[in-house]
């Protein structure tokens, strides 16, 4: 499955969002999916 994510390049200030992004990335990789991302500064 190809999963598209649109996000900013900055880490931000809220730890919960960083943790959620790491968990999503790990899940995508573990399950053999492909991450397609776009973002803006």
Secondary-structure blueprint:
Layout: E1 2-8, H1 15-30, E2 34-40
Parallel strand pairs: 1-2
Q: What structural keywords apply?
A:
1 helix, 39% helix, two-stranded parallel ribbon, alpha+beta, 41 residues
What is the distance, rounded to the nearest whole angstrom, between the alpha carbons of the first and last residues? 27 Å
**Which band does the percent of strand residues land in?**
25-35%
**General shape:** flat
Gyration radius (Cα, Å) is 11 Å
Query: How many domain units?
Result: 1
- Largest beta-sheet characterization: 2 strands, parallel
Q: Helix segment count? A: 1
User: Kindly state the mean pLDDT as a whole number?
Assistant: 86
Fraction of residues in helix: 25-40%
Low-confidence stretches: none
Q: How would you classify the helix and strand content by structural class?
A: alpha+beta
Q: Write the H/E string, N to C.
A: EHE
């Amino acid at each position: 499955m190809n999963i598209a994510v649109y996000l900013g390049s900055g880490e931000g200030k809220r730890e919960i969002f960083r943790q959620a992004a790491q968990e999503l990335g790990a899940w995508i990789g573990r399950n053999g999916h492909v991450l397609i991302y776009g973002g803006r500064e």
